[in-house]
Design a protein that fits this description.
196 residues; alpha+beta; six-stranded antiparallel beta sheet; 30% helix; elongated
């Protein structure tokens, strides 16, 4: 079976799966994308060739992008084997691939009290940041405030506020999600350098 035939079948499954996930009948989706229900049925079942001018309104109606709808199937190795990177007081494991979904990066971090978090280490960058504490207690310096976040709790904040995450009374492990700006500021900043 050629790769084109496999991708064609996957696109058909995605259309049907997204339609059913929304609880829509063929008629409901057809009305949203201005196709006849019979045409949509033939597209889903493979009895009609899929054309680009049909995929664009279908993707829009399903609340997805054309890129996501026609994305190649690349699930040969779904396991991510994170390698730790170390800086002073911080070990990071990237848990998402470089081509992460929607441009976000997921990382696990182990922070020890040795990590510098003074006023000169507060970072500012566009976007928002989210993290949950897996074990220990995190100390979030957010502008003038210091907030303790314990295991099982989460924090979300604007990264335009000067911020730093440190450990309180021993090591802390967190799971965090960064957007592109956050990844660049937190994961690619030189050791001990302020994040700007």
């Amino acid at each position: 079976m050629t790769q084109e035939v496999v991708l064609d079948a996957v696109i058909r499954q995605r259309i049907r799966g997204l339609r059913l996930a929304r609880g829509w009948s063929l008629d409901a989706l057809a009305a949203r994308c201005h196709l006849s229900p019979s045409t949509l049925s033939r597209l889903e079942t493979g009895h009609r060739r899929i054309a680009l001018d049909q995929l664009v309104p279908i993707a829009r109606a399903l609340g997805t992008t054309l890129d996501q709808l026609v994305e190649a199937v690349d699930d040969e190795d779904v396991v991510i084997r994170p390698q730790p990177t170390h800086t002073r007081g911080l070990t990071t494991w990237l848990l998402s691939r470089e081509r992460a979904l929607h441009g976000v990066t997921v990382a696990k971090m182990r922070i020890t009290p040795e990590r510098p978090t003074g006023a000169e280490h507060l970072g500012v960058h566009p976007g928002r940041e989210w993290f949950t504490v897996l074990s220990g207690t995190a100390r979030l310096q957010l502008g003038e405030r210091t907030i303790l976040i314990r295991a099982g709790d989460a924090a979300e904040f604007s990264t335009m506020v000067p911020h730093a995450i440190g450990a309180h009374d021993g090591p802390v492990e967190i799971l965090t999600i960064f957007d592109h700006d956050g990844e660049r500021a937190h994961l690619h900043a030189p050791d001990d350098a302020p994040q700007r």
